[in-house]
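Design job #97: recover the sequence.
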């Protein structure tokens, strides 16, 4: 009977050892899995940090691109303004002659400028305007930089110009310059005409 107890105790010890071995293996497996989980967490943290860096770089690139776009837009506006300021203002008839000469010369700048300089195929009014200009390259500048058509002169502008021409022609001297006197006279005539219209 003692042998049976000893055998039972040995069997029990063997069972405990087996359980301990299994528990130890489970523990080692758990430790291994925990280690793998920690490595996964470390890798995930590294990936998150990398994504944050990339996001920061992306935002910096986006900011840089926005600043570059703003700078280019400002430069573009400045160039447009500069080009607009270099446009020549032409009387309507001169602009029409210029368009006709450009079309006839198939857009060739030098041929068109030659026509204006040598009074070829342009109206008397245009030829007179070309001769009154101080810059003989004005037509070429208008072709290259562009031009705008001036507003037609008002009745007051026409009167002022006529008065000034007559003052110069008759050598009339006043206490003020002819241009100012002509402007005053034109203004007064316009006022009188306006009053007459109101009375009608």
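Job complete. Output follows.
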């Amino acid at each position: 009977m003692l042998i049976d107890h000893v055998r039972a105790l040995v069997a029990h010890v063997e069972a405990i050892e087996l359980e301990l071995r299994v528990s130890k293996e489970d523990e080692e497996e758990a430790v291994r899995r925990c280690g793998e989980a920690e490595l996964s967490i470390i890798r995930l943290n590294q990936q998150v940090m990398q994504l944050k860096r990339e996001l920061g770089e992306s935002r910096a690139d986006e900011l840089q691109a926005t600043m570059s776009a703003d700078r280019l837009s400002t430069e573009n506006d400045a160039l447009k303004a500069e080009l607009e300021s270099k446009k020549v203002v032409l009387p309507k008839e001169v602009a029409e002659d210029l368009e006709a000469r450009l079309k006839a010369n198939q857009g060739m700048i030098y041929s068109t400028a030659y026509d204006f300089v040598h009074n070829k195929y342009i109206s008397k009014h245009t030829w007179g305007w070309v001769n009154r200009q101080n810059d003989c390259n004005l037509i070429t500048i208008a072709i290259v930089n562009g031009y705008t058509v001036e507003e037609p002169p008002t009745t007051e502008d026409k009167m002022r110009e006529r008065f000034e021409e007559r003052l110069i022609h008759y050598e009339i001297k006043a206490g003020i310059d002819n241009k100012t006197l002509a402007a005053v006279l034109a203004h007064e005539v316009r006022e009188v005409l306006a009053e007459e219209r109101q009375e009608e």
